Amino acid sequence: YSRTHFDEVRGDKKVILENYFSTTEAVEKFNITQDALYALASYHKLPKIKKGQNLMILKSALNELLKNKI
User: Which residue, among 31, 34, 25, has the nearest Cα to 58 in the 3D structure?
Assistant: First the structure.
């Protein structure tokens, strides 16, 4: 398990959210559509959490996936 997993279990939510992109942040950073982002997250089974109605995607996983594609 990673530190993120332990923080999530412990309930240290501020640390957790710093490690995740909101959909808006990811769309702006990678210049992709929201639909494309959701498709990538689903197809590649990227670690994600829901914060209310917002989807938060793990920064390191998304960066690793898209660094070769952009």
Answer: 25
